[in-house]
């Protein structure tokens, strides 16, 4: 059957996740930035221009409410609008460069990114000024919003489906409450930790340096709860168990959620499975008390797989799910689950995910938005021996696209990789790939080992397995590096 005959339709994409996307909102003044010096400079300028004795120390001690409120403390009501306009004229020139990020800000934003989340700033500050501050400090925020105070902030937070709002003021707690978001307070503004806690903050931190650890723990707990809730909906499951960290964690989670007697671990045996993977997989399944089966898959019989075009993984995953379906039927099992995680789902070119989805396989880790890092962290907390296991994609992923796959090529790659791994074992190697480029091979090892080991023995070991030439990739191991060649073939000729 040709590739064209079974090519899935564009509409065939995985379903919605069980948990909402992570969107975190932040206040600006005294949450992300210390804007007091710049703001005070503008107020000092207004005092000098107007002759009004403004206590600018007092002004910057109570940042948070809208500018019009503060202006009304110093000028008659009929002058407030004009003075606000004058303040905003001076602000870009005098306030922006004087403001600095508070401790932990880059790390806090990066923590959201690492969890595949989005960020927004919701501030009472004039919207153009919000953008100027963020741009000046190079703070990468997806959505800046200004001119909202207190509970009004809930409007923007709800619109962008924020589930967490971080601020330093009691009014920020009001905004989080109005949006139904978790109110996280930092004691870097006008209120103490005790005052914020007494007002009703869900979480109180000393400053944003504590935010990444809190966020990691909170989000992991939420996503694990979503995973277990999803798994508990099934009376029984077949888990496509490669032996890697993701499918091992899914297997352990399923055993916890519905009991090991209701779970079957299925490890497909074929020339594309590294020989060293089968025994550890059997041992792991046995340690959980789940039934372990080892059906043989025949992806090598599929022309699309052998042809090794960019959609090779589609045929492999189709073969896997179609092989596991009769096993599920035999045991009267509800569903087949794969270890696809949240990182896999956004990694771009993944035809295998599409093939499994079309055949009804479920993706509980992906649906709970669990990332690879979170899966490893949860595996460590559960004491799973696979928590730090290196990634181990099928052997066919080592063969350059366009080279026809044969069992002999897979054996050659498997032996070459094992030889390199044996040489690097004393160095604590994690990742090894030997990429078959035809007559030559590209050797990928952990980047931190590149300058510590002699490359010559590695090259000799690979050439001994039948490659005419070999070289160590100076960029080190990169998961899915063959896709780089697919995207820009001219670069790798």
TrEMBL record:
InterPro entries: HAD-like_sf, HAD_sf, LarE, Ni-pincer_cofactor_biosynth, PGP-like_dom2, Rossmann-like_a/b/a_fold. GO terms for molecular function: sulfurtransferase activity. It comes from the Bacteria. SUPFAM superfamilies: Adenine nucleotide alpha hydrolases-like, HAD-like. This is NAD/GMP synthase domain-containing protein. It comes from Kribbella voronezhensis.
